[in-house]
Design goal:
Elements lengths: L1 E2 L2 H22 L4 H18 L3 E5 L11 E4 L6 H8 L4 E5 L1 H4 L4 H8 L2 E2 L6 H17 L2 E4 L17 H9 L3 E7 L12 E2 L3 E6 L13 H13 L11
Parallel strand pairs: 2-9, 3-6, 3-7, 4-5, 4-6
Antiparallel strand pairs: 1-8, 7-9
Helix pairs in contact: 1-2, 1-5, 2-3, 6-7
C-alpha cells in the first residue's frame, strides 16, 4: 500500500517531540530519561503510521550495560526509528552539521545530546570528539552513526567516512555493527511516497573493539566494520527477537 500523507504525519510527530526538548534546552532542564521517552514515543509513532514490522537477529551480542558506537548502513529515513525500537539501548544520533542547522529540529538535537560530527581536521574537530565522548559517558547512552554519511540510492554500501571511527577511538567505546535490510522498500531518498506494510530485518553483529587497531590502523578498522555490516544473513544459531 502506498501513502503520500505519511511523511507529513512523520514531520508532525517529529515536531511534537522537538519543540518540548528545545524549551527544556532553553531552560537548562534537559533530562536524558525524558528524552529517551520522547524518542521511544516518536519512533513507535513513525513505525505505526507506516505499519512497518521488523525482526531482530543477533540481539545476544548486545550488553545492555555497555555504551556503544552503533554503526549501520543507511537505506532510508526509517532506519532511525527502526533502530530505536530494535536495539535495547538508550540511543542518540550523530549527524552532519547541516542537520543541526535546521530550525527547531537542530536545536532539539543539541539539547537532547545528539552529536554533530565535525568533518574538518585539527584541534577544533578533536575537541568536538572529546565533548561528544564526555557527554556519552555522562549520560550512559550509545551513539548511532551512519558511516556512509548519507542514504544509499540503491541499497548498496557507499564509501565509509572516518569521523565516527575516530570518535570511537577517542571515546574508547566498542563499535556495534548493525545491518538494516528492507527500509529502502519503505521510503527512498528524494521520494514523497511511503510504502506501508513492509517488513525489515535488523542484524546485530559482534562488537568490534577499536583499540585493537589504534589510530595507525583506522583504514583496517573501517574495512572490518564494513565487512560486518555487508553481511545480510543471520548466523545459523541466532533467533528472531
Amino acid at each position: 500500500m502506498i501513502s503520500l500523507g505519511i511523511l507529513s504525519r512523520a514531520v508532525v510527530s517529529t515536531l511534537r517531540i522537538s519543540i518540548p526538548t528545545v524549551i527544556d534546552g532553553w531552560r537548562g532542564d534537559v533530562d536524558p530519561r525524558i528524552c529517551d521517552a520522547r524518542l521511544d514515543s516518536w519512533s513507535k509513532a513513525l513505525l505505526r503510521q507506516a505499519n512497518l514490522e521488523f525482526e531482530v537477529f543477533g540481539e545476544e551480542h548486545i550488553d545492555r550495560r555497555q555504551s556503544y558506537v552503533v554503526m549501520s548502513n543507511h537505506q532510508s529515513l526509517y532506519d532511525i526509528p527502526v533502530l530505536y525500537q530494535a536495539l535495547p539501548l538508550p540511543l542518540r544520533m550523530a549527524g552532519k552539521a547541516e542537520l543541526f542547522k535546521t530550525p527547531i529540529w537542530g536545536r532539539a538535537l543539541h539539547a537532547a545530546g545528539f552529536v554533530e560530527l565535525d568533518r574538518s581536521k585539527g584541534t577544533k574537530a578533536y575537541r568536538a570528539l572529546l565533548a561528544a565522548r564526555d557527554r556519552l559517558q555522562r549520560e550512559g547512552c550509545s551513539l548511532w552513526i551512519a558511516p556512509e554519511g548519507t542514504r544509499s540510492l540503491d541499497g548498496e554500501l557507499l564509501p565509509f567516512k572516518h569521523g565516527g571511527f575516530h570518535l570511537a577511538l577517542v571515546a574508547g567505546l566498542p563499535i556495534l555493527p548493525v545491518t538494516v535490510d528492507g527500509t529502502i522498500d519503505v521510503h527512498r531518498q528524494g521520494s514523497k511516497i511511503v510504502y506501508r506494510n513492509r517488513k525489515v530485518r535488523v542484524l546485530v553483529h559482534e562488537p568490534i573493539d577499536p583499540k585493537r587497531f589504534g589510530r595507525k590502523k583506522v583504514n583496517e578498522l573501517v574495512e572490518t566494520v564494513k565487512a560486518a555490516i555487508s553481511e545480510r544473513q543471520p548466523a545459523a544459531d541466532t533467533h528472531a527477537a
